[in-house]
Design goal:
This protein is of the alpha+beta class. The chain is built from 16 helices and 20 strands. The strands form six sheets. A five-stranded parallel β-sheet has the order 15-18-14-19-20. Strands 1-6-3-4 form a four-stranded antiparallel β-sheet. It is globular, with a radius of gyration of 25 Å.
């Protein structure tokens, strides 16, 4: 957290008073706009009233959670601008691409003229610094409200909602529903841009490292195509939203969607294997992806498809090539930085790879993590003509790891759970949240960690991914989307009991409650319905492939 966000405000005898009034001085003196708060380890809107004593922390836009609120508020303002200018159009917020959200307009071609007018209207709304009022309704009150008003103003589908409380946000004569916190004023989202992108457009926003400027635009064509491809397929199957998924579950039609999702995975893995086989001279397959992407199962399923093509995979672990402990680089806090690429003995690794590619026998090291040294225990391998090396690790897309190997002999694969399922037109489920829920279930199942343990280290995991994986994703020869359209419905009953063990005395409580809120939107699917070869089994157990 940024320094002025770390300061806690001790709230005493402040009953029925808005947070914005309690912390008025701190909000005014904050270096960056304050957009939310955490009170007694719960996320709050600045207009929320406090009814008990406790500790209050302010969230500004230079923080991770603050930028999420910024992004949601910007989305709200974009929806408001469209409604004022083009009330007949239906806008969809689809998925995230770097520091931007990809959106489209149903049955309408996006033009530069439309985007220019909407951007100007958004700037007008932002400059006016209009008040955004939050009103908490019961499900019944909200349904009645939508029936009595022009539903074109909002995009909520009430068959989706299982939660009793619904957050409606009003600004001027516009309203919309958001399940997570947004800001109380439009004026906090000053930096943005609408940019035409393929059939839709991007709504761009700043990074927490520089909230006053947009980062230089960098196109992510391969990632965009992977997301667009899956989104198109699921829209054809009419399961683009949780509402439609729940409908299929309730109607006992979900089995076909499960089988189709798994068949899509198998088809894509087979296509990657075919591409590798067709590209002559490939002797090394490098796989990288962020945490909980399903790399272990993917590598093993890819291995089966390679064998069908007459190629036998030989796995090598980069973890056995760490430098000696005293040579390990340290981070700013002086701690060992094992995720730094220089923590790998790159020269030894490359020399061994070259020897193997030349048909020579190599004795592979085994790294003793307790002693911090490599040991040689007689594990010797030689690569045969019909064999290829399969290497998985966080640095595998970074050419520095395999700098002595010719590009013509390498095939790089980036994998991630690129979520394309949204709650509705404006409320999306992030890829990061899907991976975190996967990891909570897996860590508890196989590593004995609590949900609190997993959440407490998640930010550090993300920082490592931002440094070592995401900058190289466009260098991949193939991108594989490991997400399954039905997976959160399966993970729901596994994850919620784990998350509910986190109490409001714990700093991870706010994040736990946010994840529970997402999962409650899903009708559950019994884990017994998941096929035994599914990538999802890596997280819930009982699968054909072992780590």
């Amino acid at each position: 957290m940024e320094e002025n966000q770390k300061k806690k405000i001790i709230v005493k005898s402040q009953k029925n008073v808005k947070i914005s009034e309690i912390a008025k001085k701190q909000i005014e003196e904050s270096k960056y706009p304050v957009v939310g708060a955490i009170f007694n380890n719960e996320y709050k809107n600045l207009d929320d009233k406090l009814y008990e004593d406790g500790k209050l922390e302010l969230i500004n836009i230079s923080s991770k959670e603050g930028m999420k609120i910024y992004r949601r508020t910007l989305t709200y303002i974009m929806g408001m601008a469209f409604w004022k200018l083009y009330p007949e159009l239906r806008v969809n917020v689809n998925y995230q691409l770097s520091n931007a959200m990809y959106c489209d307009i149903e049955k309408t071609k996006v033009t530069e003229e439309i985007l220019q007018k909407v951007q100007e209207k958004m700037q007008e709304i932002i400059e006016a610094d209009l008040k955004i009022e939050k009103k908490v309704m019961t499900r019944e009150e909200a349904e009645k409200f939508y029936e009595e008003t022009n539903t074109g103003k909002g995009r909520l589908q009430f068959d989706l909602i299982t939660n009793e409380k619904i957050n409606m946000y009003y600004c001027d004569d516009y309203f919309n529903y958001f399940y997570e916190t947004i800001a109380t004023h439009t004026g906090v989202t000053k930096v943005f841009e609408l940019k035409k992108y393929y059939d839709g457009f991007l709504i761009r926003y700043p990074h927490t490292l520089d909230v006053n400027n947009l980062p230089e635009y960098q196109d992510t064509k391969k990632l965009s195509w992977a997301l667009h491809e899956y989104e198109t397929i699921y829209k054809v199957l009419h399961v683009g939203t949780v509402y439609r998924l729940n409908k299929l579950i309730k109607e006992n039609k979900i089995k076909e969607i499960i089988l189709l999702s798994e068949a899509l995975h198998e088809k894509k893995i087979a296509q990657i294997a075919d591409k590798i086989a067709d590209r002559k001279g490939i002797k090394m397959i490098l796989i990288a992806g962020p945490s909980s992407s399903g790399k272990t199962t993917f590598a093993q399923r890819l291995g089966l498809q390679l064998k069908i093509n007459g190629i036998k995979p030989v796995t090598i672990s980069v973890d056995n090539y760490f430098v000696e402990r005293e040579q390990t680089p340290r981070n700013e806090e002086g701690e060992y930085d094992f995720e730094n690429i220089n923590a790998i003995d790159i020269d030894l690794f490359n020399n061994h790879l070259l020897s193997l590619l030349d048909g020579k026998e190599v004795e592979m090291p085994e790294f003793d993590f307790k002693l911090g040294t490599k040991k040689y225990n007689g594990n010797k391998i030689r690569l045969k003509d019909d064999e290829v090396l399969v290497i998985e690790g966080i640095h595998c897309l970074n050419d520095k790891l395999t700098e002595k190997i010719p590009q013509s002999q390498k095939y790089k694969i980036y994998i991630s759970a690129l979520t394309v399922l949204n709650l509705d037109s404006f409320n999306r489920i992030s890829t990061t949240d899907t991976r975190l829920i996967r990891r909570i279930v897996r860590d508890n199942q196989f590593r004995g960690y609590t949900a609190q343990d997993t959440i407490s280290t998640w930010d550090n995991v993300n920082e490592g991914e931002n440094k070592n994986i995401f900058p190289f994703q466009e260098q991949a020869d193939s991108i594989f989307n490991t997400s399954l359209i039905y997976e959160l419905a399966v993970l729901k009953d596994e994850a919620i009991p784990l998350l509910q063990k986190i109490t409001n005395k714990d700093p991870e409580y706010a994040e736990a409650q946010r994840l529970i809120e997402i999962l409650r939107y899903f009708e559950p699917i019994p884990k017994e319905m998941v096929p035994s070869n599914s990538l999802l089994k890596e997280f819930i157990g009982g699968g054909d492939f072992k780590g």
